Amino acid sequence: MEAELKAMLSDLETLKRSLPDPSHHASIDKMQLRVEHLTNLAKSAPVQRSKVKDMSAEVVDSNPYSRLMALQRMGIVQNYERIREFSVAIVGIGGVGSVAAEMLTRCGIGRLLLYDYDKVELANMNRLFFRPEQVGMTKTDAAVQTLSDINPDVVLESYTLNITTVQGFETFVSSLKNKTFRPSKEGSGVDLVLSCVDNYEARMVVNQACNELNQTWMESGVSEDAVSGHIQLLIPGETACFACAPPLVVASGIDERTLKREGVCAASLPTTMGVVAGLLVQNTLKYLLKFGHVSPYLGYNALKDYFPTMEMKPNPQCSNVACVDRQREYLLVKPARDAAAKAKIEAEALSATEFPLHDDNEWNISVVDDSELDKTDVRSLDALPDGLVRELPNADEFQKLPVPLETANSIDDLDDLRRQLEALSAG
Ligand SMILES: [Zn+2]
């Protein structure tokens, strides 16, 4: 671009000299000025902002963190700047993972570890984040390119590998263990793992690594028909792991394993993926910065705008050995943890009675107690909340198929079946 403009300038100069009539010179001078202006514009193309040492709450247009630091002033977050201490690993940089990575980058997360082995394709352009000029690049390289431009303060580590291979799994686990970013951190080197993969096998691999490392993680998924999704928090030993219970999908979801076949094109929408990425990062921020309620399971059914929630206890007969080990450890420390939690609630209740927050309730707002969440035992098939179905039957009760309660449900099931058959025959 710059070279072209330079050549044009010299062409104009030659033209000017070749014209004997000085009355023509004025218009050529004008053109030369325009080309010089264009050259300056080309030179000032994207300039990366410099790194920011401390997050400031100062309200000026040039402060990239002023709106985030305002969360403290608004009383939502106690210490927002702590976000710079946290490391989050994102496995799968597709329709959900890339958007989650961008959100965390814009929030000023300390360090992001990105894992993917795929390349950017034009077929990905119905989703957010990747751009057409990045087609052919690895998703990890393209993500680093975009994210480092958006926020150079974030430490980015990218791993172009497949975690379901033996070598890939080893590198994955050792990268999670690496504590050079914050040597004083307890446990592994990351605070949270986000699973944004699109298949069952990769989820089982993330589950295995996290159970072995006693690493808290969040799982996310979008159904193959693009109109439902979910996020789930998994704390080894404390909540059901991915192997404890057959995977759950929201009612309209399709069993991904029946559709994962060569040539079958699954549907995807930037809307559903954006919503799920938003829910996932929202839960991540709440978990890391300790505000609000961290959802153990949150579903999203786009057709009905329905968001089911639930909790799942671990299965003592889980086939994953590391999961059973973590459950044993959790039960040992549970009495002390429960006592501490009870004391905290009592102390809070006491201070609340001493200092009522709002004496006058002019809007008549009443607070609904939602602490009594339905806790579901993974062993009881019938205990799922309305709107959730199992993707696969429970291992112990494989002959007992879910019975539709109403005619409406059976029509939904038939529609699902028809869609599955149409998707299969389309391929
Ligand atoms: Zn388990």
Automatic annotation (TrEMBL):
Pfam families: ThiF. It comes from Nyssa sinensis. The keyword Metal-binding applies. Signal peptide: none annotated. PROSITE patterns: D_2_HYDROXYACID_DH_1. This is Ubiquitin-like modifier-activating enzyme 5. The keyword Nucleotide-binding applies. Belongs to the ubiquitin-activating E1 family. UBA5 subfamily. One of its GO terms (cellular component) is cytosol. GO terms for biological process: protein ufmylation. One of its GO terms (molecular function) is UFM1 activating enzyme activity. InterPro entries: D-isomer_DH_CS1 (IPR029752), ThiF/MoeB/HesA (IPR045886), ThiF_NAD_FAD-bd (IPR000594), Ubiquitin-activating_enz (IPR035985). Residues 65-319 form the THIF-type NAD/FAD binding fold domain. Keywords: ATP-binding, Metal-binding, Nucleotide-binding, Ubl conjugation pathway, Zinc.
